[in-house]
Amino acid sequence: MAILHPEIETLPREEIKKLQSEKLVWQVKRMYENVECFRNRMDEKGLKPEDIHGVEDLAKLPFSYKQDLRDYYPYGLFAEPLENIRRVHASSGTTGKRIVVGYTDNDLDMWSDCVARMLKAIGLSDKDIFQVSFGYGLFTGGFGLHAGVEKIGATVIPMSSGNTSLQIQTMVDFKATAICCTPSYAMYLAEEVEKAGVKDQLSLKVGVFGAEPWSESMRHEIEEKLGIKAYDIYGLSEILGPGVSCECEYQCGMHVWEDHFIPEIIDPDTGEVLPEGSTGELVFTTISKEGFPVIRYHTRDICSLEYAPCKCGRTHIRMNKPSGRSDDMLIIRGVNVFPSQIEEVLLDFGGNEITPNYIIKIDRVNNTDTFDLDVEMSESMFTDDLKSITKTEKAITEKLRSALGLGVRVHLVNPKTIARSEGKAKRVLDLRKL
Amino acid sequence: MLVEQISVFIENKKGRLSEIAEVLAQNNIDISALSLADTDEYGVLRMIVTDPHKAKKALADHGVIGKVTTVLAVAIEDRPGGFYEALTVLTDNGVEIKYMYACVSHEKGKALMILSVENPVEVEKMITQSKDGITNPSAIYRI
User: Fold this and answer.
1) Inter-chain contact B9–A389, Cβ cutoff 8 Å?
2) Average pLDDT of chain B, as a whole number
């Protein structure tokens, strides 16, 4: 398969390191000048930009965290003046406040390059018709893929998410050869295609799936049912959006575009960098990004890195599918959910004294995540009037929907029926077999 | 007359009702009247019992949430039209009933209505002052 930027994608590892070193020194210097939060952290460590000579000094640099984005909401972490910021994207934060990221023209160009490299790597060209079924909007998915598809000269169908029957009709009528969406939506689409009996009318060859965890068995099922090859794409808004890393034709881990991002695997408890091949928390440093750069940003994703050269000829390291999180974030139907968000909503219903006990139950039924919440009935919620209890239940459901951006089924249960271990209730029951 | 009613939260699950009945039995609490209002998943069991506060405590010890509230117990004539006449008094005075249930009375020729209203003290006055077939059940056994 074609390689879009062979001079970069197959650069010998020593050369990659050299390139990274140059860019890191540049990035540290400009961030020290332009980003207050970073400067303060450097000063606290007694570090000056001159102390950083290359990637060998990376571990000296201070970490950054999702909380920083909330503390400096909305633009406080941008390293460029707003007139140079061409676009912003945002995603849900843990508790109410969203996180905001910004892109300069160069950033948008680099982003579309990253996506374009992947699309080439999985065999797409200007002959292809690409249906972007990620949502368009503040979410990075839709626009991110869109620009990459344009970059390789293929035709974009900017479909956005939802409306399954129209998705299928569009795929068939417009002869889409490729599609991107969340893997669980792909499973759903596959089933609907099967039901509609239109599999043989599809022109689909490949699918690009990401934004939520999925397994190898899901991959096989999607491939089987849609008659395509299914590829994994990884990204997060704080680093770029989709395209930070992605699979090549060999589907053996996601190449991290190391000319733009330096990954590290650390021990989430101690912050120590772990030896090559270890599994730990993935941390990224963005060495090309101008608008919203980060140094040693905690992704909270747990995974490992593969340094051996890939059969495709690319020298950029591969990351394995994240196997979990170092925080308690859940990904439900592609939406990030933190138990703390639920707790905050429930607190309003506990007379602001105690949070009612609750347990989050997640499962996957017919390839769609189910999201149930059992809430223990409490003195403050209970009345002799059934109607007002039903009203409370509806109010909880509605408040959660607007806080999480996700529908949840609330069940009121008897007190003390939610199991507690060592005095602390277990908050999450994730029955999905991924 | 005003009586204290205990209401408990009850999940629609097998055995829940009998758990509650068992606790009351063990504590020697007698049930005079009960009604169950429910949805698909849960309900509220309302009871008139000999000692509602004792019942609440005993049930709480078994993880059942209860609340003691004041409701009205009204005796009506156990004959065609008795219920209608009783309701007329309330309707004419603009009283809204949140919920109600009925039970048989131990007094011959009378039936009992348990009523939940916004302001039970006022409504009680209203009823005792009316004559239309409504009697105060204070003489009635156990309530």
Assistant:
1) yes
2) 86
Given a cut of 70, whether residue A92 has pLDDT beyond it is no
Backbone angles phi, psi at A180, to 5 degrees: -130, 140
pLDDT value of position B133 = 46
- Which residues of B fall within a CB distance of 8 Å from A361? none
Q: Report the alpha-carbon distance of residue A85 to residue A291 in Å, rounded.
A: 6
Chain B hits for A377, CB-CB cut-off 8 Å, are 9, 42, 65
Instruction: Name the band, by pLDDT with cuts 50, 70 and 90, for residue B140.
Output: very low
A50 within a domain of the structure (yes/no): no
Number of structural domains found in chain A: 2
Measured CA distances, A412 to A344, B56, B63, B68 (Å): 17, 20, 14, 20
Query: In terms of domains, do A208 and A284 share one?
Result: yes
The answer to whether position A173 is within a domain reads: yes
Kindly state whether residue A147 falls inside one of the protein's structural domains.
yes
A367: domain CATH number is 3.30.300.30
Whether the ω angle into residue A74 lies within 30 degrees of 0, i.e. cis, is yes
Domain that holds residue A106: 71-327
Based on the domain organization, do A318 and A170 belong to the same domain?
Answer: yes
A274, A265 in Cβ contact below 8 A?
Answer: yes
Q: Is A18 among the domain residues?
A: no
Which DSSP category does A253 fall into? S
Taken in order of first residue, the domains within chain B and their CATH numbers are: 2-67 (3.30.2130.10), 70-139 (3.30.70.260)
pLDDT, tens digit (0-9, with 9 covering 90-100), for B61-79: 998 999 999 998 888 888 8
Q: Which of B5, B38, B65 is opposite residue A382, by nearest beta carbon?
A: B65
SS3 content of chain A, % helix, strand, coil (to 5): 35, 25, 40
Are A14 and A7 in contact by the 8 Å Cβ rule? The answer is: no
A227 & A347 share domain: no
> Residue A348: pLDDT band by 50, 70, 90 thresholds?
confident
The three-class DSSP label of residue A244 is: strand
* Encoded tokens for B106: 């131990």
Query: Which domain CATH number covers A313?
Result: 3.40.50.12780
Most A CBs within 10 Å, among B6, B7, B8, B9, to test the A interface: B9
Neighbours of A137 (CB within 10 A): 13
pLDDT at B89: 83
**Residue whose tokens read 């439900």:** A332
Same domain (yes/no): A308, A384: no
The single-letter DSSP state of residue B95 is P
